[in-house]
Structures are given as structure tokens and as C-alpha cells.
Amino acid sequence: MTDIEPIAVEVAYATPEKQKIVELMVEPGTSAYDAVIKSHIVNDFPEIDIENAKLGIFGNALGSKGLAPARDYVLQEGDRVEIYRPLIADPKEVRRKRAAAKKA
To answer: Sign of torsion, CA 54 58 62 64?
Structure first.
């Protein structure tokens, strides 16, 4: 019988005021979603809606760009799962207003 060695991963979340990176040892085959649950990061940030939060790995959103969704993405050694906050303002609208202000 062989022992399965755990892998090191991180779970990260930040607000404008505070950030936290939780280092975890997880079993191979752990999903990004499961790592977020195991990190207990919601204890520090109760506003996180884990069920609906957008997750990514090093700036690449899971469920896009050919990456599996968070519940299916199997973590690799050294991965950092990032929990993204909802946008406060629509970036297109901000650019539109900025361009209109420059013309005025």
C-alpha cells in the first residue's frame, strides 16, 4: 500500500481593506471549490458566497479559457485558488464616462 502525499495549495481573497492567503495541504484530486471550503476563509470574510463566487487560478477564471469549472478543476501542487469579488462598476461604463469627460 502506498501513502498518498498531500500537495500544497493556497486560497486567496482580498478586499480593498484586507487580504488573506490560506496555505493548505490537500489530497491529490482535490477540486478548487473543495479547497475553498477546507480553507475556512469565510470565517474571516463572511460576505463570500462560496456557491456563487467566481474562482480562478493565478488570474485565470475557472470555467473559461479552456479551464474546468471550480468544482471540476483538480488542483496541482502550488496552485493558488483566487476568490473574485463582484465588480463594483461596469468597466465599459467607466471608460465611456472617462472619455466623455476628456472631450468636455
So the answer is: positive
Cβ-based neighbours of 28, under 8 Å, separated by 6 or more: 4, 5, 6, 7, 74
Domains in the chain with CATH codes: 7-103 (3.10.20.30)
- Give the pTM: 0.80
Contact yes or no for 61/54 (Cβ under 8 A): yes
The answer to whether 74 touches 30, Cβ cutoff 8 Å, is yes
C-alpha cell at 6: 498531500
Residue 98: DSSP 8-state: H
Per residue in 5-32, pLDDT (tens digit) is 999 999 999 998 999 999 999 999 999 9
